[in-house]
Amino acid sequence: MKAIRRFTVRPVLPGPLRPLGELARNLRWSWHTETRDLFRSVDPGGWRAAGADPVRLLGSVSAARLAELARDRAFLRRLGAASADLDDYLHGPRWYQRQDPQGPGGGPLPAAVAYFSPEFGVTAALPQYSGGLGILAGDHLKAASDLGVPLIGVGLLYRHGYFRQSLSPDGWQLEHYPVLDPGELPVTLLREPDGTPARVTLALPAGRSLHARIHLARVGRVPLLMLDSDTEDNERGEREVTDRLYGGGSEHRLLQEMLLGIGGVRAVRAYCRITGHPAPEVFHTNEGHAGFLGLERIRELGQGAGAGSPGPEGAPGPGAVLDFDAALEAVRAGTVFTTHTPVPAGIDRFDRDLVARHFGADAELPSVPVDKILALGTETYPGGDPRLFNMAVMGLRLAQRANGVSTLHGAVSRDMFAGLWPGFDPDEMPITSITNGVHAPTWIAPEVRRLAVRRIGAHRAEEALSVGGCALWQAVVDIPDAEVWELRRTLRERLVTEVRARLRASWRQRGAGAAELGWVDQVLDPDVLTIGFARRVPSYKRLTLMLRDRDRLRELLLHPSRPVQIVVAGKAHPADDGGKRLIQELVRFADDARVRHRIVFLPDYGIGLAQKLYPGCDVWLNNPLRPLEACGTSGMKAALNGGLNLSVLDGWWDEWYEPDFGWAIPTADGSTAHEERRDDLEATALYDLIENRVAPRFYERGPDGLPRRWIEMVRRTMATLGPKVVAGRMVREYVERLYAPAARAHRVLDPETARALAAWKARVAAEWAGVAVDHVETVDHAETVDSTETVDSTETADSAPEVSVPVSVPEGAAASVAGNGGGRRAELGTALTVRAWVALGGLGPDDVEVQAVAGRVDADDAIADARLSPLKPVGGGDLAGRWVYEGTLTPDRTGPFGYTVRVLPSHPLLASHTDPGLVALPDARAVAAQG
């Protein structure tokens, strides 16, 4: 018989053991070795059976064992030390608290930052992640906790999480969705002062409502709020909104994202009201899924209060209600948007009619005009589909600051979203980049950490792993070769043991009997070069590139003196049959009795497997289609443990690659070759690298049996990459480059200032049609010039007199001042006066900035590496409203050189000159003249 109701019975800990409950409820145990060791000692067998989850462990320990531990003085001393250490960690000053009170750039650091993400990969005990986005979000929270950054995480609690993966007998991916009971997870309900569960409510069409409770997970110092719609207050359809991560159709996903964004802001308000936590001054949207948070904050500002909290994040009080445009400016000032996708197909897009149906008078946010909401997400740029609502586009329009997650990805993002800022070059788009990092205490092997503690001490090791600091990582240089090599072999051997256990379990799931699995004991060898490849399985990551030439791969795996072994893992999206076919193709190759001891596919890739896999691999392989890997942090985790990277120059590897600590796989991107030919070329390059450079380096031994050149690469990897790839470096960059400036901008935009800025933007937009560059001329001050010729702006290119500077300047093009075949020449350092007649229409000089944009030009007169020089008004406007602007250009490089003149809106509160998306450039009537 089946139970009709399920609940969790929690143990009652004896008084002396009460601190165990506090230690278990704070997820710091997931990255704190001493606390994990303490729980393991409670019941080693139970610890393994509980999947290294303290909450489950304590629910299974017998009363007799608890009584025994309560009398064990040695255990109680360890418990007291762990409890005191956690208390110091939670309440003592850390990096953030030690910063200048005025913060970078003036003004205090943010009192709090709200960080929204659709998934969080904190620990396997809280399976609320699918891949890199969630792992990155979890590492962001953990690093913020280590640094003392006052972050509040916001997400959803999915009752089925992401799927568990297994394989069919023929290697096809199978998905399983276990039901997660919040009572068995390391979370607690957020409760009102009267003890009732706190909840948020969203209005749905046709008078329906969506209710959600708020679960709280403690990630060190950081509270993580997770909304759960599986409550009896909801009808069946609404209960299933948070059923599974990335599941369901368009409306299901839309409701999830409305709950995350709108409900998430309301959850933050409730948490701050109940606990007294400072209200966030900055809201960080991790990818577009949470973009609706900006609409809820606009609603708050438009109603004059912050959803029950007295004036949070600048929500005005009575009499300070803002209209939509002013509220939008206030919200943008304090919002940061991070994009993670390098391809438009990776962005959530909804039918506009579906979005419109869920907002307005009969649904959610009735006070916010629906047409304004739709305008924020509409793809109004060339190539966009105006019938769709784009979540990333809305995220960018609602955020004053945005970033990609590697230098290359920042450039890709600026190009991908260039249509939002027409008239500007891609490198001027207001999207910067902060390269991802990984939480070292989570991903570094215990053996590596113990080595660091022995070398530099526990305190300095913690600082190196959580904050960074090149000097601390340089201690690796002094470790003897033999010790480095023994560490690497230990990690490899531990991986071999893990692989055999998981492979045996996988084959049993596929239907194999114990008697036919004796061969598993010979799988992998702790003395063989081990390559790892693990990630999600979309087609662009090219899981099966290694299979392009199977005979060549077999030769590498079975080489008589330099064999290679490969460990592969990864999940395909449940709806991605193409990805599942790739997995099946690789599994069938790995099932071949000739090579199955040298290549394995391990199902159910997650945090638990990853923590064994990264340290045990000598080489980490990554071969995506460039530039489709936004960052690719798996290679960072390997590098922390001394693993060398073998990767396409994409994501983070593109900016930090050096031959001292890895290899770059040549790519055929940009080639006109067919994609099949491209993959053949890149696969051949991969085989050649492994055969001719990687394997020989690994097996090249000295008289003492040590591969000294390999060991030196391990040292260089850890000493050079270590301080770069840690998440502490990443979060410090977010604080200094994005959070602190956003907090300052937020504070400046009080209601009156927000209204004034919105009014100014509206006036400039209305008058911009009258702004034009009517005429441009240059005057050369070189001694060889004794006259100035000027061409009237009404002449056309065909009728203009012959002068050495081209007389016609098409829109956006450069005027050449040093060119070939008829273009004039100027000596390096020659001062050129640029004079422009600019029509401002109904605007004044205080509303604009006029710039000369100069630099080297190509054959099409496109300016590269542009330098900006402001031009200043040299007289009052004439009767036609034209102003004369003047400035000096000094060519600072030889070769073809050119310039153009442009007009931009200018206001002291703009985050960048591209912010309004307006620019006036010379047209074909504006001609240049020579001095």
UniProtKB/TrEMBL annotation:
Task: List the Pfam families.
Answer: DUF3417, Phosphorylase
Cofactor dependence is on: pyridoxal 5'-phosphate
* Annotated ranges, domain DUF3417: 13-126
Q: Which domain of life is it from?
A: Bacteria
- List the biased-composition ranges (Polar residues): 785-797
Q: Where is the segment annotated Disordered?
A: 785-804
According to the UniProt record, what class of enzyme is this? Answer: transferase
PROSITE patterns per record: PHOSPHORYLASE (PS00102)
Write the Enzyme Commission number(s) for this entry: 2.4.1.1
According to UniProt, the reaction catalysed is: [(1->4)-alpha-D-glucosyl](n) + phosphate = [(1->4)-alpha-D-glucosyl](n-1) + alpha-D-glucose 1-phosphate
InterPro entries per UniProt: Agluc_phsphrylas, Glyco_trans_35, Glycogen/Maltodextrin_Phosph, Glycogen_phosphorylase_DUF3417, Pyridoxal_P_attach_site
Q: Which UniProt keywords apply?
A: Allosteric enzyme, Carbohydrate metabolism, Glycosyltransferase, Pyridoxal phosphate, Transferase
Its annotated function is as follows:
Phosphorylase is an important allosteric enzyme in carbohydrate metabolism. Enzymes from different sources differ in their regulatory mechanisms and in their natural substrates. However, all known phosphorylases share catalytic and structural properties.
What family, per the record?
A: Belongs to the glycogen phosphorylase family.
Q: Which PANTHER family match?
A: GLYCOGEN PHOSPHORYLASE (PTHR42655:SF1)
The protein in question is named glycogen phosphorylase
Query: Which species does this protein come from?
Result: Streptomyces yaizuensis
Quote the gene name from the UniProt entry: glgP
